[in-house]
Amino acid sequence: MSRKKAIELPEVNFSEDGEIRYLHLGTEWIQGSMFLDRPYDIELEYVQRMFGWLLFFPHDEVKGAHAMQLGLGAGTITKFCYKKLKMTTTAIELNPGVLHACRGWFRLPPDDERLRVVLADAALEIQSDEWRGTVDALQVDLYDEHAAAPVLDTPDFYRHCRDLLSPQGVMTVNLFGRSSSYPASVEKICAAFGEDAVWAFKPTREGNAIVLAQRTSSRPKRDELLAAAERIQDKWGLPAPKWLRVFKPLSK
């Protein structure tokens, strides 16, 4: 399905290093990765943290809930939501070459009744009434071939993201880049969601800082978060207990 506007898009290629395959957009910057022998597992630490929303979502309701990704990358998040979490999954991707690479090189399954990839400009697509209030887990990872700053990072964009979410929905955003201003990005997210709805991880060693925003703010107690983290690790294999060492609400 295509709703894209005519713009010049970067070439898409890949490289391999041992057991890992990497996606690139014509530069050395890594746009995603895959274990060759475990194509539905998650290799990068920051991508694992993009599932921090599981700390707040009822685990018996994950199967069949709706996940949306803005930016397909190597398809890692999309595949995990679809294959491991058994969610209805929608990905919005601008570059048809990325979709072709994901299907040809990164084991992304074809569309079916639970999986749909929409080729479109995410800034425009998320304003469609079709999506409003339907998304339980929104994962935003939008970078160009230079990985210098988020492609979409405005107050209006984050307001539209909030409009996508169901009442218990959660957004996670990857903030990374040599030209990005983390405090300014967080300020925009807070303006859209409210400061009491925003949580943040400390940056990874590579500099990826994952920010989480709830449609409806909550303050689970530490022991509740730990219990949720342990269930996440046991059920889906994500290192969620480690997250709690570097994850906290923005406001007390």
Feature tags:
single chain; 252 residues; alpha/beta; nine-stranded mixed sheet; three-stranded antiparallel sheet; globular
Apparent shape? globular
In the predicted model, the low-confidence regions spanning at least 5 consecutive residues are: 1-6, 144-149
Query: What's the number of extended β-strand segments?
Result: 12
In N-to-C order, the SSE pattern is: EEEEHEHEHEHEHEHEEHHE
Name the strands of the widest sheet in spatial order: 1-7-6-5-8-9-11-10-12
Overall structural class, as computed from helix and strand content, comes to: alpha/beta
Radius of gyration: 17 Å
For the terminal residues, how far apart are their CA atoms?
44 Å
- What is the number of helical segments per DSSP (H or I, 4+ residues)? 8
The largest β sheet comes out as:
9 strands, mixed
Question: Kindly state the mean pLDDT as a whole number?
Answer: 88
Estimate percent helicity: 25-40%
- How much of the polypeptide forms β-strand, as a percent range? 25-35%
Could you explain the architecture of this structure?
By secondary structure, the protein is α/β, with parallel strands linked by helices. It is 27% helix and 25% strand. Strands 1-7-6-5-8-9-11-10-12 form a 9-stranded mixed β-sheet, sandwiched between helices. Strands 2-3-4 form a 3-stranded antiparallel β-sheet, with no helix packed on it. Helix 5 packs across helix 6.
